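Example 3.2
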Amino acid sequence: MSYTGSVLMRWAMSTDADLAGYKVYQGASPGLYTRTQQLSLGGQGSTDAPAWTVTQIENNVPYYLALTAMDTSLNESLFSAEITVTKPVPLLSLVRQL
């Protein structure tokens, strides 16, 4: 039985003077991203810590996530270090399957 969930990502804000936003990349294999979300900043001079919630996470399925920063000319940085997220199967679900 599969459930869905979500994961909240937070990261340190880029210090580039012409920072315009970020792109969050998500995929089912390392380095192969099939879903992209562009995030704009909260406004000029915003100091809010950047965050994004990745939704529709299935149990026991690994998701690979990376991030880039964009400047006002829409140039992208290199990818951040990739992280892997796997939502464990709830214990109650395992007990029911026995």
